[in-house]
Specification:
By secondary structure, this protein is an alpha/beta fold. The protein is 22% helix and 29% strand. It is elongated. Bound molecules: flavin-adenine dinucleotide. Flavin-adenine dinucleotide (FAD) binds next to helix 1, strand 2, helix 2, strand 9 and helix 6.
Length: 355
Amino acid sequence: MSDILSAAQAAPTPVETVIIGAGPVGLFQIFELGLLGINAHIIDSLAQAGGQCTELYPDKPIYDIPALPICGAQELIDRLLEQAKPFHATFHLGQEVTEVQPLEDGKFHVATAAGTRLIAGALVIAGGVGSFQPRRLALPGVEEFEGRQVHYRVKAATDFHGRDLLICGGGDSALDWTVDLCEKARSLTLLHRRAEFRAAPATVARMRELVDSGKMRIVEGIANGMRKHNDRLAGLDVHTADGRDVHIPAEHVLAFYGLHPKLGPIAEWGMELEKRALKVDTEKFQTSIPGIFAVGDINTYPGKKKLILSGFHEAALAAFAIQHHLFPEKRQFLQYTTTSPIMQKRLGVAETDTH
Ligand SMILES: Cc1cc2nc3c(=O)[nH]c(=O)nc-3n(C[C@H](O)[C@H](O)[C@H](O)COP(=O)(O)OP(=O)(O)OC[C@H]3O[C@@H](n4cnc5c(N)ncnc54)[C@H](O)[C@@H]3O)c2cc1C
C-alpha cells in the first residue's frame, strides 16, 4: 500500500465503480451500469461534463448518432446527462485522477489532484484523448509565477478586482473574461497575436466598445519575456505585430490559449498501451489489469474506430463484464428496457412496484 494511504488521512470512500472521464462515453457508461443496478462515481479534470463534445465543438452538429439525424454536440451531452439522471451518479468535476493503485483485495485506490480518494470495486477508464490541460504561457521561468500571478483559469473573479490585468488570447474565454473584468479591474490590456478574434461576435463588439470608451486597450503582438521586481512578476515584454518591443506592466496575467489533451497519468498506471491507447479485448473491454476496463477513444483493439457510436457499444458490453467482475455468482441474462420491470424501476418509469 502506498504512502498516500497513511493513517494520518481520512479513510477513502468505498464505491462500487469509478468512471474516469465524463465525455459522451463515460456518461453513457453511467447509464449502462445503472440499468444493471450498479452505482458509479465519475471524475473529470474539466469543470463540466462533456469531454471533446463540450470542450472542442459544442455548437457543431453531429449526424451519426443513431435515431438523431442531427444533434448539436452540447445537445448530445445534455441528453446523455438527462438519460443518466435516474442513476444518481456522483460527479467529481475539475479534478484530475492522478493515482490508480490496485489493492490486495482486487479493488482499486483512486486519488485525484484535488484530494478525493475512493476505493472502487471496478474502474472504467473513459479518458478519451487524455485529460485536457491549459496551454501554458511559453516563457522560460513562468512556473515560478503560475497560480500566483499567472493564471490559466479563473477560480475567484474577485481576486482580480482592483488589479492591473493582462489577458492573453483571442477566443471565447479571453474575451468573456475581458468583458467581465474590464470595469472591475484597475487597468486591463488584452494581448492577442492578430487583429481577428475567434470569440462570439457580440462579445467582441462589447470589448471594442470598452476600448473605444477608454476603459481598456488592445495590443496586437506576442509575449517574448517576463519582467520581475523583487520576486514578483512586474509584467510581460511583447513584440508587437507592427515590429515594436514594448513592456506591458501587470499584477496578474490571465492566459487563455485553449486546452490540449494529455494522456498524462493514465500512461503510468501499468496497463498495456499501444500507440498511446489502452489495449482491451472486445468481449469485456477489459485492460491488461483485471477489473480495469477502458471504453471510448482511450482504448484500442483490432478494427477500433474512434466514434461516439462505438464507445456506446463498448460501454454496454463493459457494464455486463463489470457486473460479472463485481458479482461473479450472479446469473446474467439479457433484459429489454421495454419489458423489464426491474430495469423500469431503476429508470424510475415503472407504473407499479415490482420485484
Ligand atoms: C471537431 C470534432 C468533431 C467530431 N465529430 C464527431 C462525429 O460527428 N461523430 C462521432 O462519432 N465522433 C466525432 N468526434 C469524435 C468524438 O468527439 C469522440 O469520439 C468522443 O468525444 C469520445 O468520447 P470519450 O468519452 O471516449 O472521450 P472524450 O470526449 O475525449 O472525454 C474524455 C474525458 O476524460 C477526461 N480525462 C482524461 N484523463 C483524465 C484524468 N486522468 N482525470 C480526469 N479526467 C480525465 C477528459 O478531461 C475528458 O473530459 C469528433 C471529434 C472532434 C474533435
